[in-house]
Amino acid sequence: MAQIEFEGEWFAVLPERPKLMFLVFLCHELTIAGRNSYEPQTDSLKKPDQLRKINEIQHRVSGCMRDLLAGHASIEQSIAKWVLAQTDAELGGLMSWAWRAAKDRVSNAA
Predict the structure, then answer these.
(1) Which residues face 30 on adjacent strands?
(2) Cβ atoms within 10 Å, residue 33
(3) Looking at the DSSP assignment, which residues form a beta bridge with residue 38?
(4) Whether the Cβ atoms of residue 8 and residue 74 lie closer than 8 Å to each other
(5) How far apart are the first and last CA of the chain?
(6) Do residues 76 and 63 touch, judged by C-beta distance below 8 A?
(7) pTM
(8) For labeling, which of 19, 26, 27, 93 is most exposed (least CB within 10 Å)?
(9) For 1-58, what is each residue's pLDDT tens digit?
(10) Is the distance from CB of 57 to CB of 33 less than 8 angstroms?
(11) Other C-beta atoms within 10 Å of 13: how many?
């Protein structure tokens, strides 16, 4: 849990523009993670429960982005928990990958 708290604190202290960039990048990475639930080369899903969980996480991430853009208080430190605290190992790996990828993109954009 210490790593999740560290990531939450990292996110909370970001200046506004990098914070928004991170959220945009994370939303994009979550769509890529969601593709893991697709049945290859079909319109079918092989893991609908996983896609639903990713969609719920993305909903919260985009809500945080909306709140920041509107100038409203947000529960920013919770975002790391929403994304990274997964009980399913496969989903946890996908979420960790999405978080790291978004974090790397913010670092590279700075």
Answers:
(1) none
(2) 25
(3) 45
(4) no
(5) 28
(6) no
(7) 0.91
(8) 93
(9) 599 999 999 999 999 999 999 999 999 999 999 999 999 999 999 999 999 999 999 9
(10) no
(11) 10
